[in-house]
């Protein structure tokens, strides 16, 4: 049973609020293994809805799922120079197996480029075998000492797409297509608006030519990198001899892309929509969208009310609503209300003896807009008829609210380092400035503000007037977004 | 592209046939990591259909999914004496992580009883928190030196259900319920009939009180253990302090069950239905149930035929059929036929210029019964209307055929060790005999025949007349099934 103590308010300590709410909403728990978390059924149910939606989108864009080994020979990881530099410090290493010391140590995959492209090299002979468009749902391991549930754990669950193409142009097109899929998913399913754009060289994936990213702004005005899509060029195909015979008969190296999102998205959902009462789960991701709480004091009341509750459940389920009756006898209605609000169920439907007599129900919405009533007393038939649309409206409202907050905390046209520092030391948020492209400027901003260059935003997100001056002085060649980040 | 060479016939070398067909049907491939396999999209697609069906059945019986850590402290595995004895020789051990040697080695889960019940101990306080009914879909590792794709690999994918109950009776009920779910799934989805029953003490799960099993008979007359369901009693709850306060107020240990099936089932499907042409995928598991092959010689023929193929595809998809058009230009129809037959697609639909003129299609069935035609020339409308039912009929036919083969190779009423040995050295199959329950008899049969006691069959599978004599001499107390096994 979840704890009934009030949560630390977000305004007081956002980080404490997050740690508390993730555990009290029963999304996840710490495990006896340092750095590894347990995803509890409520959290895993949300992840399953994320998986299903993404998987459908991957398949609709021509990808197939496959599964590659958990363990990778150390020598594979070491082949691509930048790749090994990026991942080696975080590796977990298997040195013994089957009662013996291994001849070569094996690492638990931190990501699977190396093992996957070594297999593609075996399968691909001709341009006719291209493109290869695969995805895998898997666990990965990147050793962490300071962990936070969902946001940073040694083991996490994710999907990693890996593709091989005959041309650089096709690979770039794929990289951008999957970035678009992620953006659509994050907006339409998590109701979490993102800024998409290109990473600077210092922030790109270890081994990529170009990394594109989805950056979301959390309620504490820190950025969350929510998903990335990489154009890997021929960096890995050259190390793993992934070649093909072109239509013209020449032996060429293939062009690769990889892209991934993880259970970190559950953390993003929490920090985008949660409030001081608990988390808020967007209806499309909610394992339970409507909870029906029967209210009664006497046994003869109980029978009629619980029966009605189950009748409503069956009718809503027929209408495609994910609905549950909470008919536990040892909890009073108030305790049930708190539990489901903490867990972020979009709607609660209360029904008591008086409602039964009036053929009405009480519908309570988890989040309300300005001037909107939290409770609605509705004729039963109307509630049943309207709930599917009300769930869709709730979903849209969450996105709109998150977008308004993000915009209110985006600072455009910032020209000086002082101004940038002032915003980041104060309210925080996304800060848009000009940049010359000089890595020394990026490094200086990072040192002085603790913020990082989140991305060079794509066309949808650029300011109406391109900045003329670089934040470090001199001419600007592009606009960039800075923020403190998770 | 798959290899065009003919397969080794099953009758010549079943084992060679299996190894070839798994790779040439592109189900799986060997990886550069000894003992680990790669599951390719065709194999993974079949596994996805298995997962979806099982997952729906688990949820319909009240279970929720969760996720527990990959790595388990060595000390956890060592707590339950029989458990550690069973699994220690197969462990893969992480000794270093994050650039340092770990204080305590961590093992990659061979199964998750220990870590899961340690978490249940944290979550369960009262009888009101019971039952806990969880499942996880995960990878596990049991180090193997002699591996076979799907049947025996170091890493494999599976689901493991773990439950906690207030009474022994409830735990036993759950153990048998999930055995029933497995049996239904194997029969109705894989079209693979199984004998269910109890394992003898020497064959039960390391740490279980009782293990129930599903045993299938492969075409080479060897048994495949296809899934197991364990009543764990209080063996683990006592080691991990998984206690609860009973309704009467007493502190009691919970009663556990665990149950699992794995990607091994894909191997079972191959060895149940495959033939010398390739594998046969039961329609309910087939990622593609119908492949449409347009046939043409000239370019103007191509346009019309391919257009019609896509029209039929769209109409079949609307009827809920998983259908694909193979319009690759660089392969001739014969090469496509061979490829899809090797991959076991239930139906092929051919359409050429003459068929177009006659508004007919040619429907070719992957497997035919006695006296049944392989090819049917059908009016287009009839083919479209009948295909969903023909797929269901095909599914039923596969189960019937497999059951008939299993029955033809089940030997009942066997009374002497000589007779048993003669059958097992000869044709093989399931051999039913009496048994006293004496482990020494079991050991002697194993030594003399290389067969193992597969199970003490449940009521549905017992012979009409209970055997009177034990196979080792003396009185019988139960009937048992022997077979050589994978």
Spatially, the strands of the biggest sheet of chain A line up as 3-7-8-14-11-10-9-22-23-21-20
> What is the chains' assembly state?
homodimer
Q: Kindly report the average pLDDT value of chain A.
A: 96
| Main beta sheet of chain A | 11 strands, mixed
Termini separation of chain A: 30 Å
**Biggest interface: chains and residue counts?**
A-B, 61 and 61 residues
CATH level 1 class label of the largest domain in chain A = Alpha Beta
Record field, number of beta strands of chain A: 23
Comma- or semicolon-separated keywords:
homodimer, 486 residues, alpha+beta, BirA Bifunctional Protein, domain 2, Rossmann fold, Translation Initiation Factor IF3, five-stranded mixed β-sheet, globular
